[in-house]
Amino acid sequence: MKNTGIETIKGIRNLLEGKKKISIVPHENPDGDAMGSSLGLGQVLKNRGHEVQVMPVNDYPDFLKWFSSDVPVMVYEKDKKAVKEFLFSSDVLFCLDFNEEKRAGHLEKMIHRFEGEKVLIDHHPYPSSFCHFTVSEIEYSSTAELVFDVLAELGYTGSIDSAAAEALYTGILTDTGGFSHNISKNTFKVVSELLNCEINTDRIQSAVFHNFSADRMKLLGYCLNEKMQVFPEYRAAVIGLTKEELDRFNFIPGDSEGFVNYPLSINNIVFSALFIEKEGFVKASFRSKGDFPANAFSIEHFNGGGHLNAAGGESELNFQETLEKFTQLLPQYKHQLLKTKF
Q1: R_g over Cα of the chain
Q2: By mean pLDDT, which of 122-131, 160-169, 314-323 is the weakest?
Q3: How far is CA 321 from CA 171, 235, 275, in A?
Q4: ∠ Cα 109 112 115 (to 5°)
Q5: So what's the pLDDT on residue 125?
Q6: pLDDT computed for residue 63 by the predictor
Q7: Cross-strand partners of 286
Q8: Which terminal residue of the chain has fewer beta carbons within 10 Å of its beta carbon, N or C?
């Protein structure tokens, strides 16, 4: 961990002395890394005698509800009173897989008002200084990988059981697209340590990637056949989905997971975008190959951010205007896209 000093680790270790009441909050619309890192950390802390709850602001996809962890998960939108009571009676708050308070959605104000000690563990760039202790390491594949190394620095690896290892492995698996991007030697080193906990990787693979509804498969087919636009002259592609189209296929959270990656399977395509119409805004996801900076593109044009090859953002324009904006931007990046190597 290049950016995390010894004093930060000592400070976190001191926070966890004795039995503590601990809240763990992942980012809004939690994905595999957000839930995997949260449950992995939570399980270890529970194994060490702490009272722990994971509290996402909104529900998470069904394909992430199979974890073996027995750490309670309390969704804010389903039980606001209980979440508020537990959070404000906690000694420590861990914020995982997000770099600024607003990424916690409706929990933003409560995080800001929390009077106990706050710890941030995250791998996204440009963290804001809203926590007492910040572990921010952007070279990591995932927050789950980073959580493992934090636990190792704390001397807690002996408390990583199969349930914790399963959750952390899932976080790494999903945030690397099945070990296809943002990986390093350390990623595989951590994975090898997790495998020593005798986790069932075949079961995890099946639960994450082969656990969708028929409606989701039909939606994917519709996207690829009817909604994908390919721009070979720019080595780019885009998929856009309206609210009406989502409703037509009985969309539930998580159904569009991975859709943005499919155009990158096309020969010579190095940049892909997915736009999904939401209430009052359009959600954007970007993926790239090689050295084309999906994060810089998102930061500059779609109020977002992320990693070199995986980023997200949003647009306040209407759906059609957002798609037009994207296509109109491509000529500005033609030279960069054409010279991208991977």
Answers
A1: 20
A2: 122-131
A3: 34, 22, 11
A4: 125
A5: 87
A6: 86
A7: 273, 311
A8: C
Q: What percent of the chain has pLDDT over 70?
A: 100
C-alpha 68/C-alpha 207 separation (Å) is 12
Average pLDDT, the chain: 96
The full 3-state SS of the chain, as one line of letters, equals CCCCCHHHHHHHHHHCCCCCEEEEEECCCCCHHHHHHHHHHHHHHHHCCCEEEECCCCCCCHHHCCCCCCCCECCCCCCHHHHHHHHHCCCEEEEECCCCHHHHHHHHHHHHHCCCEEEEEECCCCCCCCCCEEEECCCCCCHHHHHHHHHHHHCCHHHCCHHHHHHHHHHHHHHCCCCCCCCCHHHHHHHHHHHCCCCCHHHHHHHHHCCCCHHHHHHHHHHHHHHEEEECCCCEEEEEECHHHHHHCCCCCCCCCCHHHHHHHCCCCCEEEEEEECCCCEEEEEEECCCCCHHHHHHHHCCCEECCCEEEEEECCCHHHHHHHHHHHHHHHHHHHHHCCC
**Percent of the chain beyond pLDDT 90?**
91
Mean pLDDT of 179-205: 94
pLDDT digits 0-9 by tens, 70-86: 999 999 999 999 999 99
Residue 120 has pLDDT above 90, yes or no: yes
β 228-231/21-26 pair status: unpaired
Rounded to 5 degrees, φ, ψ at 10 are -60, -40
CA neighbours closer than 13 Å in the CB half-sphere of residue 316: 1
For residues 85 and 6, what is the distance between their CA atoms, to the nearest angstrom?
Answer: 33
All domains in the chain, ordered by first residue: 6-209 (3.90.1640.10), 216-339 (3.10.310.30)
pTM recorded for the entire structure: 0.89
